[in-house]
Design a protein that fits this description.
By secondary structure, the protein is of the alpha+beta class. The protein contains eight helices and 19 strands. It folds into three domains: 86 residues, Uridine Diphospho-n-acetylenolpyruvylglucosamine Reductase, domain 2 (2-Layer Sandwich), CATH 3.30.43; 125 residues, Uridine Diphospho-n-acetylenolpyruvylglucosamine Reductase, domain 3, CATH 3.30.465.10; 83 residues, Alpha-Beta Complex (Uridine Diphospho-n-acetylenolpyruvylglucosamine Reductase, domain 1), CATH 3.90.78.10. The two termini are 15 Å apart. The structure holds flavin-adenine dinucleotide. The site of flavin-adenine dinucleotide has 32 residues, from strand 3, helix 4, strand 9, strand 13 and strand 15.
Length: 312
């Protein structure tokens, strides 16, 4: 985006939100868990739902490209940056409501999954333990049907409240209408935005719930490189295989390009071992894809959403 256009558009976003909510040339490494990547022309982090709605309307009317970001734990912005507007949900949508007698949890999209799982456990509600260690937001998790340890978001979701991409229409889809599959929902096609999610859980002894959460956290911490910046498992599970095993069997464990490395602890993870660029990460991704294809004839598709322009 040209400088004058950026300034003009940023001013319009400030008018409908506030000065603190809008950043020009935002360093997306700060907002994504890879801690790598380029700048976004404009980053808007509305402080409330009305601000989010108005920002979507303005972004749609501007004719510029725009993207929705949650906690940034499954997104990589290429080094050339994102030409357009990124709208981040994390400040606007934080509420968590629990209806104990109906075993329901209603969480807004910006609430962290870990926080929602803990709140549910405090209310003796079980069901979110498997995904309690996923570091994303409820919105990101409902978008992609996040899953771990034999549990997926679709197992607990009953309804999802949405707003259309242009901010004009609010509506609700049932879990069936969300068309959930492995790392898939209807939102991959519509591009609409999760506002809140209703989940039906089950009453259980809170000690047991916390014990299960702690046990899974220990498993995660011992088997995954949680001390290094990453976006979790980099690749989707190819049908009939495990991505990490294919990569390991191809002899790629520890393979390094610049600051990006196939984790020696878990080959399914690409980690930033210090100063990785997004190009290091995508070059390593391509190398892994080519070697696994050559060795086993299997295509590996990234689970991580890669956006923006390549470095010039
Ligand atoms: C250490 C680590 C471990 C991980 N372990 C797991 C795991 O076990 N299982 C798993 O499934 N994932 C895992 N992940 C990946 C990631 O945490 C999940 O995919 C999570 O659901 C992403 O949520 P987010 O808020 O960070 O989304 P983002 O990364 O911000 O966005 C991801 C996608 O969701 C879309 N999105 C975000 N918010 C909304 C919204 N409100 N409405 C519509 N679309 C939205 C974005 O446009 C983008 O396409 C891991 C990541 C890390 C870093």
């Amino acid at each position: 985006m040209e400088e004058a256009r950026k300034q003009e558009l940023a001013k319009q976003f400030i008018d409908i939100t506030s000065e603190e909510c809008v950043e020009i040339d935002a360093d997306m490494a700060q907002y994504t868990s890879f801690r790598a990547g380029g700048k976004a022309d404009i980053l808007v982090s509305p402080a409330d739902y009305e601000g989010l709605k108005a920002s979507l309307k303005l972004a749609a009317a501007s004719g510029e490209r725009y993207y929705i970001l949650g906690n940034g734990t499954n997104v990589l912005v290429r080094d050339g940056g994102y030409r357009g507007i990124i709208i981040r949900t994390m400040d606007a949508l934080q509420e968590i409501a629990i209806v104990d007698e109906e075993e329901l949890v209603i969480a807004q999209a910006g609430a962290l999954l870990s926080k929602v799982a803990r709140s549910a456990a405090q209310h003796m509600l079980s069901g979110l333990e498997p995904v309690s260690g996923v570091p994303g937001s409820i919105g990101g998790a409902a978008f992609m049907n996040a899953g771990a340890y034999d549990g997926e978001m679709k197992d607990v979701i009953t309804d999802v409240r949405l707003i259309s991409r242009d901010g004009e229409r609010e509506y609700t889809l049932s879990v069936d209408e969300m068309d959930y599959g492995y790392r898939h929902s209807v939102l991959y096609e519509t591009g609409d935005i999760v506002v809140s999610v209703m989940m039906k859980l089950k009453m259980d002894d809170p000690h047991k719930i916390f014990d299960r959460m702690n046990e899974l956290a220990e498993r995660r911490n011992s088997k995954q490189p949680v001390d290094k910046p990453s976006a979790g498992s980099f690749f989707k599970r190819p049908t009939g295989y495990f991505a990490g095993k294919l990569i390991q069997d191809a002899g790629l464990k520890g393979l390094t390009v610049g600051g990006a490395q196939v984790s020696p602890l878990h080959s399914g993870f690409i980690v930033n071992i210090g100063g990785a660029t997004a190009t290091d990460i995508t070059d390593l991704m391509k190398l892994v894809q080519a070697r696994v294809k050559a060795e086993f004839g299997v295509d590996m598709e990234p689970e991580v959403r890669i956006i923006g322009e390549p470095a010039e």
